[in-house]
Amino acid sequence: MSTPTLASKRRRSALRTAAFMSPWLIGFAVFFAYPLLSTVYFSFMRYDGFAPPVWSGTKNWGYVFAHYPYFWPALRNTLWLVVVTVTLRVLFGLGVGLLITRIRTATGVFRTLFYLPYLAPPVAATMAFAFLLNPGTGPVNSILADVGLPAPGWFNDPTWSKPALTLLALWGIGDLMVIFMAALLDVPTEQYEAAELDGASARQRFRYVTLPNIAPIVMFAVVTGVIQAMQYYTQPLIAGKVASGVIQGAGTQFEPGYPDKSTLTLPQLVYNLGFQRFDYGSACVVALVLFALSMAFTALLMRRRGGLIQAGG
Amino acid sequence: MTRLLDPPTRRSGAPASPASPAERTARRRALLEWIAVHALGIAAALFFTLPFVFVLLTSLMDDAQALSRDLVPHTWEWSNYRRVMDTPGFLTWWRNTLVYAGLGTILTVVSSIPVAYALAKFRFRGRNLSLMLVISMMMLPPQVVVIPMYLFWAKQLDLSGTLWPLIIPMAFGDAFSIFLLRQFLMTIPDEYLDAARVDGCGDLRTLLRVVLPMARPGIAAVALFQFFYAWNDYFGPQIYASENPGAWTLSYGLESFKGAHHTDWNLTMAATVLVMAPVILVFFFAQKAFVEGVTLTGVKG
């Protein structure tokens, strides 16, 4: 082999990079950049998939924000999920993580049992909860009635449908539990020892040693939780469908967000506008709102966790 | 181990009988704490397992009892599972799910590894930008681009009514898998790669012979996640396969099963168990890889 010049060496290394990156470069162009630009384009078009698209200016935008009856309820539900569900999930995940690090007997069994619900496929898990919480014959209400407590309507009652979804989300806490568990085990032992020498109580040790050490992970859990809440789709949809007893099939129209719009989320609106009403233009408007919100929180995540990019290891 | 994790019993492992009052209170407190922690643990375990138990019990009730408020079956109707399996379409959904999950997983792993390797170990301009775009794609809900994608697959390629619009993109790298693999490959010391280079290995040979064997746990985690993703996916099949029941997957078919068996909670729960069981079985065989993957996405970043 002749000694390569610097320029040819550089060219070779650029080619090598391009070759290794090529699957993703194509994927990025075809499945991300092109459809994203296309979504922007369609948001200014009237298009039903049959007649050619017609320029309609900001009409779709006006319709979604001012007249589409599902937009604001969906956004309000998302806010509710962010404030209540995400908060409870982080607190519960931290609590279960703390608990699992203190259990000394059959730790593996407990950990597995705590983790399993996270694995249940969302459709199956939601179906299971729709059964468990069904107001008529469900085990939960049977037990509540037996001990003399009021039995809520859960997925059939607009005030209880989101708490029921929250219960489902708390059941599947396995992901956060594992993350918090790892973070808690990473807290340096010496800091606890030093705090104890200084006479810190258990509560003070948690406040001044544990919390500062796991703060980045709490932040990570909050931001990813917010992103997940905005993209919440399968569970609220299935819960609404099963509770409303609608038989799925071609041509069936399901009242989105049953009961009373209480389980609507933004992704469901894209489906409703695009694939039930064939108003692709307005569907793209909602898609862009979803995009903007997701990216805003992703940026927050990347800034907060610069280590994610740089250190990486 | 941390102080947090010290078994309370260790303190009582110190000199046994004639204990000073202070030691005795300390021991009693430790014992009480042990009891409190384990009582809470058992309560939590009930919260996490009882839903599974009720679902299983109901799946074994006869039709009439499934409509009652009873919690335990009078007769154990194992034939419910037979009835679910015999439902027209159920085995087809099973097969479609395996094709989608199996083929999708293979394509994802093969196409994501070289990208992750380049992002982890090559130095090039735009690497950080690429990584940021990968993370952005990872955080992007599928609904954002679904309209143009649907028009592309359905109107231009005439592939609606099949699962191909979901499988083919997986041959072009999956953002989440790339990110997770990249995190894993970062932990492999550069010395190994340098040594391979000194021995005359090209980039591809280094990747195949040196990096891949070391990255096996990371690859296992990615494969598992991708398999579960496809198994659990509802939105994808809803968009592309809904018009053709012959292309439905288990997650999609399960809901229509409920619709068709409106009041048969026993059959619906049996079908639910059949959708859950494979995932949980796979987990038991691959527990370590899975937990490692969850930790990698969150903590090691």
Summary of the model, kept short:
The complex is a heterodimer of chains A (313) and B (301). Chain A has 313 residues and is an all-alpha fold.
Description:
The complex is a heterodimer of chains A (313) and B (301). Chain A has helices at residues 6-42, 59-67, 71-102, 107-119, 122-132, 139-146, 161-171, 174-186, 189-197, 202-230, 234-244, 266-276, 280-304, and strands spanning 45-46, 54-55. Chain A is mainly alpha-helical and 313 residues long. Chain A folds into 2 domains: 6-55, no CATH class; 70-307, MetI-like (MetI-like fold, Orthogonal Bundle). With 301 residues, chain B is mostly helical. Helix content of chain B is 72%, strand content 0%. Chain B contains 16 helices and no strands. In chain B, helix 4 packs across helix 15, helix 5 (90-121) runs antiparallel to helix 12 (216-232) and helix 14 (250-260) runs antiparallel to helix 15. The longest helix of chain B has 39 residues, at 21-59. Chain B starts with 7 loop residues before the first helix and ends with a helix. The chains are: A mainly alpha (313), B mainly alpha (301). The interface between A and B is large, with 117 and 106 residues. Chain A: One of its GO terms (cellular component) is plasma membrane. Chain A: Pfam families: BPD_transp_1 (PF00528). Chain A: InterPro entries: ABC_transporter_permease (IPR051393), MetI-like (IPR000515), MetI-like_sf (IPR035906).
Identify low-pLDDT runs of chain A. 247-251, 307-313
What is the radius of gyration of chain A computed over CA atoms, rounded to a whole number of angstroms? 25 Å
CATH architecture of the largest domain in chain A: Orthogonal Bundle
Broad structural category of chain A: mainly alpha
Report the sheet-strand fraction of chain B: under 5%
Count structural domains of chain A.
Answer: 2
CATH class of the largest domain in chain A: Mainly Alpha
InterPro entries (chain A): ABC_transporter_permease, MetI-like, MetI-like_sf
Main location (chain A): membrane
Protein name (chain A): Sugar ABC transporter permease
Family (chain A): Belongs to the binding-protein-dependent transport system permease family.
